[in-house]
Amino acid sequence: MHKIILFLFSLVLLSCQYQEKKIIVLSKASEKYVEWMQNENIIILDAYTIRNTDSILQLTDGIILTGGEDINPLEYNDTNNIKVCGPINYKRDTLERKLFDFAFENKIPLIGVCRGMQMMNVVSGGTLYGDLPTEIGTKVIHRNKGEVNHEIVLCDSSTLIFPIDTDTIMVNSWHHQGLKKIPKHLRVIARSFDGLPEAVVMNKNIHPFMIAVQFHPERLEKNNPIHIRMRSSFFKEINK
Length: 240
What we know:
Order of helices and strands: HEHEHEHEHEHEEEEEEH
Radius of gyration: 18 Å
């Protein structure tokens, strides 16, 4: 009982002490994501290391679903993909579904990165390719024993993610799964040259700010226009 009271007191203290600052919750933190979002007016919390996420979510202004392991195919009712997946992180699948649901229901701004984009699609009712080289070929190499680079083409307009003065952009890539069936309320705004979705936004009549990319903006250089654009769009939204 004393531990619960102490925890609640800590939350109140946190809320009062940092009432001028915005809180961003990462589904699983790493140095690159923290560096990307770091700002004197921002508090960054790692949901993966926090026991009571319900209380933390009540304070959050923005959520980022970060990159990582393959999503359990049972999350999208697929048993065939189990054999091509790496180790499944059940805790993370459950946590990220919870974070997405909270953001969706409470209109909290959300960014999805790599696995995060795949989770956004899955929780919205979509499915995934289990292994890209096997299912769609090797016209574009999305992963080769680590991070690679390839071009993507913008197929719709969105200034939330991309500069407006170009239609093809070089991005980094480190994944072997990708979006297959896509719900109608997710709009694909960029694809790689094998047709794979590389960026999506949720229709604003469903949610005011949910954007996701298959590549890793947090790993791009600080002067990269996508790195800058996604960060500034997110900050603008959480400060409304």
